[in-house]
Amino acid sequence: MNVKRTFGTILTILGIIGLIYAGYGFVQHSIQTRELLVIGIIGIIFFVSGIGLVKNTKDEA
Questions:
Q1: For residue 61, what pLDDT band results from cuts at 50, 70 and 90?
Q2: Which keywords are on file for this protein (predicted)?
């Protein structure tokens, strides 16, 4: 079991969820803009770092 690849997948999923939540909040105007901006930035960071971990981790058989 590759821990880095699993952690990268989890980070990617959390990033996607954060970006969807921020986008939905922007459309609905339900939460303050500052909170949505922070959630969006954290979502982007999680998404990019997760993709980087999955992409750069080599499979070990």
A1: low
A2: Membrane, Transmembrane, Transmembrane helix
Q: Among all chains, which residue has been given the structure tokens 């954290």? A: 42
Q: Are 55 and 10 in contact (CB under 8 A)?
A: no
Give a yes or no: residue 28 inside a domain: yes
Q: How far apart are CA 51 and CA 12, in angstroms?
A: 6
d(CA 41, CA 24): 15
Into how many domains does the chain fold?
Answer: 1
Q: Band of the pLDDT at 58, cuts 50, 70, 90? A: confident
